[in-house]
Write a structure and sequence with these properties.
By secondary structure, this protein is α+β, with helices and mostly antiparallel strands. It contains 16 helices and 19 strands. It is globular, with a radius of gyration of 23 Å.
Length: 495
């Protein structure tokens, strides 16, 4: 089950996770990210070849990255691709599309690529501008799926047509209902694909999803956001399986292009009116973890919670916050607050319910609340199209991308619209640092800098999300770092 629909099947719509979960059933990526334990992201992060990749290697100077594709991978015998082999030109076409397409919000992901060569059908050479610790992640993250050029040539885009060489064949997609896939008998490893059919069913109502899981009508697709919510499900279904993960973030995003919020004292003053401990206690039943840029589930890559609690902006002190607002000459009486629709994500509404009374009582500020249909909301929030403040979050696959996506000027999750040369320089330095120990130190220092001196986002405590799945699923891995096909490629049902 999916709590929200996928408005498009184009990889360029990859900001919506439901799109990625579906298209990964059909399209390959050159690289996927894994950990020593896929359900424990704090363990060592490592890239590994996707199912279309044989291997890769870097040149001695780190400025050339060469991929060798598996031979004999064929698209399904469906027009307009008609069963031809996947080749290196498909890779070049796809990545260049994501680098240059007018609608692409992911262009900065590929900043390290100078050019792409295809010396033969099975070899792709990325010529890099500099050695990069980020390039493998960029080729693993959305939207880096390999698509056949014929679809764009015939249809103009990939929004509705989905043809690939993957383990499953796209049957159909019905807006508001979901997407339907069948096993691909011609997949190169078809003997190890055990599911005959996979349905991504859209169920927007939380209670309906829970009831479907309890009744065994759905196999996966529901999460419990609190321990008590998990316990309630386990009380009626004690055999239900789950994985606890804390690898996403959430926060209050200030519009840095709005003159009202360009003074750090304003952002800090407003932030000091948000009681983060109450968020942890009331919403997460005391189970919320304090974090900044990188979620605590990434272990050593995240700042220690006790350090985060000492950051000035994270200390609840509305009296001191009011003083900062007065010093900045902030006289605003109404702030426009942009929230995700409740049926998709009620968290923003709950958080607002904690700090809105404080802002009104201590600051004399009322909130003018608005929302939109989810895909519209995501587009506006991620692309700095909201007026004042947006309350939202994200789930990404790599600690560096949490920093780069949210704080780089052209980052695909830079909703606040931050444009800070020092921040950009720090991020460029992190990306070009190949030694992991030095890269870790720089990333931690970066988080300290933006939390104290930038504050385009006030990061909210998060609790683990308990991802539920049926006990009869075997070899199923509902890990946040892995997408749809990677969860279920080799899954079977054992009732």
């Amino acid at each position: 089950m999916q709590s929200r629909d996928a408005a498009s099947l184009d990889p360029l719509a990859g900001q919506i996770s439901t799109t990625i979960e579906r298209i990964s059933m059909v399209y390959p990526a050159l690289v996927i990210y894994d950990t020593d334990n896929p359900n424990d992201p704090s363990t060592a992060t490592r890239p590994k070849p996707g199912w279309a990749t044989e291997r890769w290697e870097f040149s001695g100077d780190g400025k050339t990255l060469t991929f060798h594709l598996k031979k004999g991978l064929k698209y399904t015998n469906t027009p307009p691709v008609n069963g031809r082999e996947l080749v290196s030109e498909d890779v070049k076409f796809s990545i260049l599309r994501y680098m240059t397409h007018p609608t692409s919000t992911f262009k900065p992901r590929y900043d390290d690529i100078a050019s792409i060569d295809t010396p033969d059908k099975y070899t792709v050479v990325f010529n890099l501008k500099r050695p990069s610790a980020y390039i493998l992640y960029a080729l693993a993250a959305e939207p880096s799926y390999i698509t056949p050029p014929e679809i764009e040539k015939q249809y103009g885009d990939y929004k509705q047509v989905l043809v690939g060489p993957g383990p499953f064949i796209h049957e159909k997609t019905i807006q508001g209902e979901g997407s339907f896939f069948t096993r691909n008998p011609d997949y190169y490893d078809a003997g190890h694909i055990y599911l005959d059919r996979v349905i991504f069913k859209v169920v927007t109502d939380n209670a309906t999803r829970t009831a479907a899981m309890r009744a065994g009508q759905a196999h996966w697709g529901q999460s419990a956001d609190t321990k008590s919510g998990l316990d309630a499900i386990l009380k009626t279904n004690p055999d239900m399986k789950y994985e606890a993960q804390n690898t996403s973030n959430f926060g209050v995003w200030y519009n840095m292009k709005n003159p009202l919020f360009q003074d750090l004292r304003v952002r800090k003053g407003l932030s000091k009116g948000v009681d983060l401990q109450e968020v942890s206690d009331r919403i997460y039943e005391g189970d919320g973890s304090w974090q900044t840029v990188v979620p605590v589930g990434f272990g050593k890559w995240a700042l220690p919670q006790e350090e985060v609690k000492r950051f000035d902006a994270y200390i609840f002190d509305p009296k001191a916050g009011k003083k900062l607002l007065d010093e900045a000459g902030f006289k605003v009486k109404t702030i426009k607050m942009y929230l995700a629709p409740k049926n998709i994500n009620a968290l923003g509404d709950q958080i607002m319910g904690i700090f809105a009374p404080v802002w009104e009582k201590e600051y004399g500020i009322k909130l003018d609340i608005s929302t939109d249909e989810y895909s519209t909301f995501v587009n506006k929030c991620y692309n700095n199209k909201f007026d004042d403040v947006c309350v939202f979050g994200m789930g990404l696959y790599d600690p560096i991308d949490y920093a780069r996506a949210q704080y780089y000027t052209a980052g695909p999750r830079n909703g606040p619209g931050l444009d800070d040369p020092k921040v950009n320089a720090m991020l460029d330095d992190i990306v070009s640092t190949l030694d992991e120990g030095q890269r870790l130190k720089k990333l931690l220092d970066f988080q300290r800098h933006v939390s104290n001196n930038i504050l385009s986002m006030l990061h909210i405590p998060r609790a683990p999300s308990y991802r539920l799945y049926q006990p009869f699923l075997r070899n199923f891995v509902p890990a946040l770092r892995m997408r749809g096909a990677e969860w279920i490629m080799y899954t079977w049902i054992d009732k």
